[in-house]
Amino acid sequence: MTTHRLNIAGVTKSFGPVKVLHGVDLKIAPGSVVGLLGENGAGKSTLMNIVSGSLRQDAGHLHLDGTELALQSVRDGIDLGIRFVHQELSTIGSLSVAENIFLGDYLAGRAGVIKRRDMAARSQEALASVGLDRIDPNTIVETLRPGQQQLIEIAKAVVVQPRLLILDEPTSSLTSVEAAKLFELMRKLAADGAAVIFITHKLEEALNNCDRIVVLRDGALVSDELADQTDKARLIHHMVGKSSVFEWKGSAAKASDAQISIRGLCDADAHLSPVSLDVGAGEVVALFGLVGAGRTEFMETLFGFRKAAGGEVFIHGRPLRLGHVPTSVRNGVAMVPEGRKVRGILPSHSVERNISASNLDRLSRFGLMRAGAEQGAAADLAASLRIKMENAKQVITRLSGGNQQKAVFARAVMVEPRLLLLDEPTHGVDVGAKSEIYEIIHELALKGMSVIVSSSELPEVLAIADRCVVFSQGEMVGSLTRSEMSEGEILRLAFANH
Amino acid sequence: MTQEVTAAMTVEAQSIKKLLKTLLARRETSVAIILLLVVILMSFASEYFFTQRNLLNIGRQASVVAIVALGQTLVIIARGIDLSVGSVIGLSAVTGAIVAQTTGSQVLGIGGALGAGLAAGLFNAVLYTRFHINPFIATLGTLSIARGLALLMTGGIPVSFNGWASWFGAGRIADVPVSLVMMFLLAVLFFFLATRTRAGRNIYATGDNPTAARLAGIDVDRTRVLVFAVSGLLAGLGGLILAGNLNSASPDLGRGYELDVIAAVILGGTALSGGRGSIPGVILGALLMALLGNAFVLLGISSHWQVVTKGLVIVLAVGIDGIQRGRED
Ligand SMILES: Nc1ncnc2c1ncn2[C@@H]1O[C@H](COP(=O)(O)OP(=O)(O)OP(=O)(O)O)[C@@H](O)[C@H]1O
Ligand SMILES: [Mg+2]
C-alpha cells in the first residue's frame, strides 16, 4: 500500500443544524498539484480549515503520510509542515514585510532578541521565490497593494519547504504576471516533494497548472479527474450541474452624449497623471492594467474616497463635489471596492444590514428607519443574486467568501446608481455566480446605468466591456472599442510604460 | 404513545435549551444574573435594603453614571472612547454655577452647564475628525484641559449652585428622583436612536468597519462628531445633576467618573472594538455598579474593598462573555 501525503476519509462537518460537508474522501500524493473547485459555499474553505487544524471535523479521519492527524490547533499543523494560505488576507498591516513573514516564528537569539538582519535576509529569499524581489523586507505591509500582501502570505508559507501547501483562491488579487510566477513556484514545490492543494474559481488556471482536479458540490466530492482529461465545460457541469457561460450580449450603450464626464482627474498622492474619460448612458467601460497601474486610485478618487488634486467630474451634466463619498452616493455614484474583508463588509452586521448600508437615506423617513422596507429590499436582492445563506439576519462573516462578495455587490446595486464603479467585482465568485453578476451588469446597463469596471481578468473584460480603457503606471494609455479589443492589444497597451 | 410524549418533551427541552443558550450568549444576561444574585444576597443581609428609600437611593446613584454612560456607549460603538467625561462633569458644573451667579438667570445657568458639556464634546470631535488625533489621546488631553479650566475658573473653591439645578439633582416627581426619571426617558430615547434610526445605523456601521462604512457612503466624520457631542452634552447634564444634588459646584466634581462610566458600558456588553453594544445592557451595567456601592455601605465594608470588587466584577462579567464567545480571532 502506498502512503498518501494526505488522506481524507469520510470527513463530515456541520455548523449548528447545517451540514456543510457530507463525508468527503480525498487522497493526495506527494509531488502533485491538486485543483479544488466548487461553487461558493460548496465547503472548500471549510474542508481546508479542517485539514489545517483551525476547525475540527465531526466525523472521519485524516492521515498525513500514513499517520493519523489529530491537530489541536493551526500551530500543530504548521509544526507538521501543513501551511494554509487563507482566502481572506491576514497580514498584519502595521508590521513590516519581514515581521509578517516570520510572525509566530521570529528568529531570535538566546535572550529573545530578534535577529533583524537574519530575518531580512531570509525574507528576501522567500520574497524572491514569489516574484517580489523588488520589495524591501522592511516595508510596512499596509502600504502594499492587496495582491502584494497576498504574495507575502504565500512567501510566509514557503519560507520552510512545506509538506502540504493549501492555497485558497490565491490568485484572485494577483495579476497574470504574478499568477504565472506563483504557478512556477507551485510546480517547484511539488517537484521538491510537497503536495499542493489549489483552490480557484478560474478554470483555466486549474486546467493549466494542476495534475488533478477535484470538484466539491454541496459538501460532497462529485468528480476527480486528471487535468488533461477534462475541460472547462465538463468542470462547470460538475460544479453547478448545468453549463453556464456568459457571453458578450451586445452593447446597451445609447448613442446619446456623454452622461458621465471626467476631466483631468488626478489624485493628491500623485499616483495618477490627469485622466479624462467620458462614459455614455448604458455603457460598460472596463479598466485594465497591471498591478500598480492606478486603476484603484482612479476609481477611489473619482468616488471621493481619496483626495483629488485637480479635475472635474460631471454626472448627467451636473458637477460633482469631489472628496466626499456621501455626496457622491447621493448624486448617484456607487462603488464595490476591492478587498471585501478590509473595505467591503461590516463584519458584525447581518447580511441584510450589510446590503442596506448604502441606502439608509431611502430606507428611512425623517431619520427613522421605515419598518419592513429594509427586509423587503434586501431580501429581493439577496434572492436575485442567489446569496446562499440560512437567513438574512445571519452575521455576514458566517457566509462563504463568494457570498459575502455578492452581498457587497448587492449593496451598490441597491443604490440604483447612475454610475456604478466596480473594482474587481467578481473576486472569489464562482463561475455560475460570475455569469449572474455579468447578467445583472448587463441589465443595469440596459436601464441606462453607466458602469466602470476594473478587472484583471481578460476573459471578464472581453465578456462585458463595450470599451476597454488601459492604464499603465498611473497613466491612461489607450482606449479600445469593442472591435479593436483583443487580448494581445490590451496587453500590449498595459505594458506601454514598462 | 409514550414514545411520542418523550419525543415531544425532548423537542420542547431542546428549544428551551436553545433559548437559554442564546440568552446566555449575551453579556446582558450575565450582568442581569449577577445583579439578581446581589439583590437576593442583600435582601438577606440587610433589612434596610428593600426599603423604598434605599432602592430609590440606589436608582439615583445609578442615574448619573447611566446617563453619562449612554453617551459613552454610542462613542464606543462607533469605535471611539471618551476619557474626558469625568472632567467635563466638573467643568460643566462650575460653568453653570458661575453663569447662574453672574447673570442671576437660572435658565442661563442650566444652559451654561449643558453648553460647556456640548462644547467639550465638540472639541473632542474636532481633535479627532479634523486633526486626526486618536480619540484615546484626544480625550485624555481634554480630560486634563477641562479639569484645569474648572480649577482656574473657580480658583479651586466650590461655587454654590442651587435653584433649578437642585431640582435636577435632588428634586422628586411623585417621590421618584428627577434624575432617575431622566435616566429612564433618556434610555428609552437612546434605545430608539440606536435601533430605529438612520443615525443609529451609521454609528454601528462606523464602529464595525470605518473604511467599509465610508466606502458605503456613510458620513463617518459626521457620525463621529455626533457621538462625541452627545457624550459631552450628557456629561454636562451629569455635572448639573451632581452639583445640584450638593447645591454646590466643586471643580473636583466627577473626578474618576470616566472609569465607572466606561465600566458600566463594558459590563453592558458593548465591545471596545466597536460595532456592537446595546442600550439596555448599559443601564444594567450602571445599576450593578450602583448596587455594589450601596451593598458595601450597608454591610459596612471598607470602601477600599469596594474598589477591588468593582474591578473583579468587570473582569468576571467580561470573562464569562469571552469564554462563551470562544476564540473568535
Ligand atoms: N462559521 C460558520 N458558521 C456557520 N456557517 C458557516 C461558517 N463557515 C462557513 N459556513 C457555511 O458553510 C458553507 C461552506 O462554506 P465555505 O466557506 O467552506 O465555502 P467555500 O466553498 O469556500 O465558498 P467560496 O468559494 O465562496 O469561498 C457555506 O454555506 C457557509 O455559509
Ligand atoms: Mg472559501
From TrEMBL, chain A:
UniProt xrefs under SMART domains: AAA
Highest taxon of the lineage: Bacteria
Domain ABC transporter: 6-243, 253-498
Gene Ontology MF terms in the entry: ATP binding; ATP hydrolysis activity
Entry annotated with the keyword Acyltransferase: no
Keyword terms, alphabetized: ATP-binding, Cell membrane, Membrane, Nucleotide-binding, Repeat, Sugar transport, Translocase, Transport
Protein name: Monosaccharide ABC transporter ATP-binding protein (CUT2 family)
Source species: Yoonia sediminilitoris
TrEMBL record, chain B:
Localisation: Cell membrane
InterPro entries assigned: ABC_transp_permease
Membrane-spanning segments: 29-50, 62-81, 107-128, 176-194, 225-244, 282-301
Keyword Transferase in annotation: no
GO MF terms held by the record: transmembrane transporter activity
Keywords, sorted A to Z: Cell inner membrane, Cell membrane, Membrane, Transmembrane, Transmembrane helix, Transport
Membrane topology, as annotated: Multi-pass membrane protein
A GO cellular component entry from the record: plasma membrane
Quaternary structure and partners: The complex is composed of two ATP-binding proteins (LsrA), two transmembrane proteins (LsrC and LsrD) and a solute-binding protein (LsrB).
Function: Part of the ABC transporter complex LsrABCD involved in autoinducer 2 (AI-2) import. Probably responsible for the translocation of the substrate across the membrane.
Identification of the protein by name: Autoinducer 2 import system permease protein LsrD
Organism from which the protein derives: Yoonia sediminilitoris
